[in-house]
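ok so I'm stuck.
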Amino acid sequence: MPQISLSDLNAAARADFVAALANIVEYSPWIAEQLADKRPFAGINQLHAALMAAIQSADPDVQLALIRAHPDLASKTQRAAGLTAESTDEQNGAGLDRLSDAEYAAFERVNNAYRDKFGFPYIVCVRRHTKDSVLRDFEIRLRNIVKTETRRAIEEIGRISALRLDQLVIADDKL
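replied:
not stuck anymore, here's the structure
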């Protein structure tokens, strides 16, 4: 993904701003649309804080749709259907594209158990994990209640979006 300076992002036409930030949060351009109206941003930290404020102030059903827009981890079906380039890179970086058949089966089992229990996909910032630590985290988080996992999913979306912004936007401050 090509980088853009914060000053260019602040000065961009609304449509260009939204397009540049379209995949910062998985399949949720409404967030970039809200951020476009809050420009200019003094730094990337302010931009990310505004992004998180947009998510946290959204109606619960909008938050749930945001969470549900994320892919399952290590899903052959979703890979074939097409993940965003960002999700593909992140999952590949954690080795989720090079699993054995047994590991794919383990991921399928925990993905299904998690979805059955919570009604949405397990979300984790895979850049902070290995395939083994993701599986351990799955098992731990399966013990939680829906309210805890909804909050945790939004926190993880925050971590993912911070890293994506940091890769995309050139600014004096860093997240």
